[in-house]
Design goal:
The chain is an alpha+beta fold. It has 2 helices and 4 strands, in the order αββαββ. β1 and β2 form a beta hairpin. The relative contact order is 0.23.
Length: 97
């Protein structure tokens, strides 16, 4: 019985990752905002959005706003953006939008 419980525990831990199914790390501290000019292939750092895993929805909205502001300030017409999740060990743990 003890072996079965230990096996189940180990199997469940092996299946765990450090982020949810939408690629938000549970230990996230914020988002780095990057804007890409698709015409010239230039990239611009648009800032940092402070956030935690629990405030990820607001963080995504703020990331979008910062990306749009950067694109407007650079007069970009054909652009895209990405939000990199920041943790204590990485400045771009995962990319989300």
């Amino acid at each position: 019985m003890r072996w079965i419980l230990m096996s189940s525990l180990i199997a469940s831990l092996v299946g765990c990752s450090g982020h949810d199914s939408d690629y938000f790390p549970y230990t996230m501290r914020g988002l780095n905002v990057w804007v890409y000019d698709n015409s010239s292939q230039a990239e611009y750092f648009a800032g940092f959005v402070e956030a935690s895993y629990m405030s990820k929805s607001d963080a995504l909205s703020n990331c979008n706003s910062q990306a749009r502001a950067m694109a407007n300030s650079k007069h970009l017409e054909n652009w895209s953006y990405v939000c990199c999740t920041v943790t204590s060990s990485s400045n771009c743990e995962t990319k989300v939008r």
